[in-house]
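Weekly modeling sync, notes
Attendees: S.R. (lead), two postdocs, one rotation student

Agenda item 3: backlog of single-chain predictions. S.R. asked that every request posted to the team notebook include the full sequence so nobody has to chase files. The rotation student volunteered to paste the first one in as an example of the format we agreed on. Action items at the bottom.

Example entry:
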Amino acid sequence: MIFNWSPAVFKANLKLSGALIIAGCLMTFLMCPGCVNSAANYFEVAAFTSSMWLALWLGNDRVSCWLSNRISWIDFPVKRFFLGILSMLVYTLGAIYLIVLIFEKAFGLSLGDSLTLTLISSLAITIVITSFFTGKSFLANWKEATIQSERLKREGMAARYESLKNQVNPH
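Predicted structure, as returned to the notebook:
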């Protein structure tokens, strides 16, 4: 299941969304000092940056979860890794394109020469974030497989013990 709508998960996602919006505003303040001079321009750029943070962080997380449900890390780790990277790149480029298009059409916000910088920096940030999600997902699946393996060993030993016990004392 990709989406978990339980109250605890919803609350956590709401907190994460708030943190991503704050990160977008802070990033705008730090990376675009000229934007601070005009409040209207600052809010447009901050909304753009926050939209990028939300779409890329949450979207790539959903893509990663969806892919992990389709391709097992345990059975096909290399395939899952490369498909994860490919899907992250495709999603990120598509999301950036749509966000830029929406902000150009809706707000007249033009990135001009900084579009290339936006693409490169967004891909770099996304690679770091996706690496985190990929590592987290791989380790969680590895831990689950290890726990399941130990459980199966214990069950096998218990079954052998019961078998030996029944051989020694059949009644």
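Discussion: group reviewed the output briefly. The CA atoms of residues 14 and 20 lie 10 Å apart.
Action items: rotation student to repeat for the remaining queue; S.R. to check formatting next week.
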